[in-house]
């Protein structure tokens, strides 16, 4: 049976690129998907990501 872990990564898209890079590089498994949570209009932005990791 394959096992998966889902991580929530809170971020500000304009400032947290290096934090996201460090987080992704620290994962032990394979990243299967990155799903952004997009806020509705009028101020559309991404406030967190769901990252799906497949464990070995």
From the structure above, extract its key features.
56 residues; 3-stranded antiparallel sheet; single chain; alpha+beta
List the topology elements:
Elements: E1 3-10, H1 17-26, E2 30-38, E3 46-55
Antiparallel strand pairs: 1-3, 2-3
Mean pLDDT metric: 94
Q: What is the helical fraction, as a range of percent?
A: 10-25%
Q: What's the N-to-C terminus distance?
A: 10 Å
Unreliable sequence segments: none
Order of helices and strands: EHEE
The description of the largest β-sheet is: 3 strands, antiparallel
- State the strand order across the main sheet: 1-3-2
The counted number of beta strands is 3
- Count the helices. How many? 1
Shape: flat
Structural class: alpha+beta
Multimeric state? single chain
Radius of gyration: 13 Å
Proportion of residues in extended strands: over 45%
Task: Describe the 3D structure.
- This protein is of the alpha+beta class and 56 residues long.
- It has 1 helix and 3 strands; from the N terminus they run E-H-E-E.
- It has one helix spanning 17-26; strands at 3-10, 30-38, 46-55.
- A 3-stranded antiparallel sheet has the order 1-3-2, with no helix packed on it.
- The longest helix is centred in the middle third of the chain and has 10 residues, at 17-26.
- The relative contact order is 0.39.
- The model has no long low-confidence stretch (mean pLDDT 94).
């Amino acid at each position: 049976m394959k096992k998966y872990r889902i991580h929530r990564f809170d971020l500000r898209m304009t400032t947290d690129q290096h934090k996201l890079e460090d987080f992704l590089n620290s994962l032990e498994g394979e990243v299967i998907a990155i799903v952004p949570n997009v806020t509705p209009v009028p101020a559309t932005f991404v406030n967190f990501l769901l990252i799906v990791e497949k464990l070995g």
